[in-house]
Amino acid sequence: MLIREFSGRGGGSLTLNRRALFTGNRRTFLKSAAVGAAITATAQAMPRSPNIIVILCDDLGYGDLSCYGSNISTPNLDRMAQEGIRFTHAYTAGAVCTPARAALLTGRYPNRYGMPRVIDPEEDYGMPDSETTMAEMLKGSGYSTMCVGKWHLGAKSRFLPTNHGFDSYFGIPYSIDMSPRVMMENTTIIEQKAELTTLTQRYTQRAVDFISRSKSSPFFLYLAHSFPHLPCAASPDFIGKSGEGLYGDAVLEIDWSTGQILQALKDNGLDSNTLVVFTSDHGPWYQGSTGGLRSRKGEIFDGGMRVPLLARMPAYIPANQVSSSIVTLMDWMPTAANLAGARLPANPLDGIDIWPLLSGQQIDVQRDAFLYFNNDHLQAIRVGQWKLHVARYNTFMFSPSPPEGRINLPLWSPELYNIVADKDESRDRADRHPAVVAQLQAQMEQLLLTFPPVIQQNWADTKKRKIFYTPSGALPMPQL
Q: What pLDDT sits at residue 404?
């Protein structure tokens, strides 16, 4: 079957592209194999119960770090990339805040358990008890756990971090543009209006304090920055220092914060036994850089869904790796379970253990297709170098809804992009590769059978619609 030729394969410099469908030639193959052998030779045995730190930014774009081509200076993050691995095809499972965070912490598509959209502060809704978070899983294996920063998985008491596996919490429970912008300590409001100019400094200090007092036993720290989500702010020490405006100043301070975290690990003798992950929840909003990817936050083009991703763990993750393998934020749940020797949750995971990739034991990972959802509506699928768009909303995420409402519409015809060669998704190849289109459609339909009935019904309803997507303000698609 054609699908066996490319299922789960990425297309890039560290990927073994064995089939013609992935356009690899003998020279490329041998070069990739040599790189892979060199990395594998430096890999060490898997650590036992390492500390785990996940640093998540809010609305940071794929192109917002200097190691990804930005003009913003990020020396600490660049060093982190040099001392570990940098991914070029890492994906979130949601192009807006709530679903992205839910997927990261559960290892599952948020559409499986009713978390596909942004939650407002006043809603009596949040992460369901049926889901196991990474914190709950690690806590069951003897880890101390703390959440610092933005939560956005429900603001009512029973949905807060301390009811989902975290021993303690300090932060703002949702986005900083939402009101009231309260600061919380565990489940108690300690400030009615959090000051934004000192926010990154305060988050960093709480994180460093947690590292220092937890050094005698394994810990999990989830540091979820509130920036560079708008409205941006930075402390006086960083105002005007980036040369790239207030947005750049906020990113520069996040880089400083990461440096403080790495220094705290060294000061406490924890550097070699701590996995540090740095990433973003999704693409940038009105400011920030997509690094040349199409579209932005709220859309399922790669500008909204592809994120920067760095991982560092000296002596275990070989330095100077750049991987083009397809990875997702959902992969950190099973990877953490493997490292901690923790029991996996009862609910089946969508992420996969990527430790063999991180450690250099493998240069690619086998995985199922990756599905792109906008709210509860399927819109695209990626397998290897191919990305197939099948549907799209009738308006952009942050534009006014038309009189008939915001509707998911089938495309005039599916659009197929070679996302490796055509990163801005501008050259439709569907007419040249009809067999690939058919195989991706079949795989997509098969995977949808594992989702709740509402997801399947939404897709069935979309396919029945007699109107087709036309970009706002464009002439109708010509009839054939």
A: 78
Which CATH number is 370-464 given? 3.30.1120.10
Tell me the C-alpha distance between 291 and 423, whole Å: 10
- The set of catalytic residues is 97, 152
Percent of the chain residues past pLDDT 90, beyond the cut: 82
pLDDT at position 413 is 92
For 40, 228, 239, 417, 472, the CA distances from 287, given in Å and listed in that order, are 39, 9, 17, 26, 22
CB neighbour list of residue 330: distance below 8 Å, 6 or more residues apart: 93, 103, 104, 106, 107, 108, 109, 349, 350, 351
> What number is the average pLDDT over the span 236-252?
98
- Decide yes or no: CATH 3.50.50.60 for domain 51-358: no
CA–CA gap between residue 430 and residue 359 (Å, rounded): 37
When pLDDT is cut at 50, 70 and 90, the band that residue 11 belongs to is very low
Query: What strands lie across the sheet with 370-374, from one edge to the other?
Result: 370-374, 377-383, 386-393, 408-418
- What does the pLDDT read at residue 397? 80
Decide: residue 205, CB within 10 A, 0-12 exposed, 13-18 middle, 19+ buried.
middle
* Residues sharing a CB contact under 8 Å with residue 88, sequence separation 6 or more, in sequence order: 12, 322, 323, 324
Tell me whether strands 51-57 and 219-224 are parallel, antiparallel or unpaired.
parallel
**Could you tell me the residue ranges of all domains in the chain?**
2-42, 51-358, 370-464
Average pLDDT of span 218-246 = 98
